Amino acid sequence: MANSRQRTRKRHRGQAGPISTGKQLLIGFFVLFTVLTVSALYVLEAATKPFSTIENHAIEVAKDYAGVTEVSQVTQFNGKVSYYTVYGKNETGQEVYVLIPESSSEIFVYQVSEGISQADAERRAQENGATTIEKTVFGYQDGHAIWEVKAGLSYYLIDFKTGELIKKEGL
Description:
Layout lengths: L1 H4 L15 H46 L1 E11 L3 E9 L4 E7 L6 E4 L6 H10 L5 E9 L2 E8 L2 E6 L5 E6 L1
Antiparallel strand pairs: 1-2, 2-3, 3-4, 5-6, 6-7, 7-8
């Protein structure tokens, strides 16, 4: 009689049994990985949104003010004043740099042919001690259109029109 009182569990076809600990861990890691990936992508998108909004505004200003019809690149120069540089071609096909300050309405337009190229500015910086060049941007400082060449912990400010070294900042 004791045997008849014991309850036995029988599995019926189509019924799943309990999930093993290994499967639970695998599902947990998958869910955690998915949440972390989605969160990271959201943070990345939120962090880049202000720059792309400002970049689009700079492009519109360059089109309206300087007649830029084709944009090749937009960069940011952070000196005493921050500028956005729009590089492209105007309505007549000339290559131009349009410097748009972050905080004022004084816009500068330079034809690329008016000064030295980025490669020439980098060579000038190397002549003055720059080793490995990390970044070169076009900007405006102290009444001069400049190339800012970053090499290591130093910044070389090269005059756009003359190619002269204006200043070396940093170590």
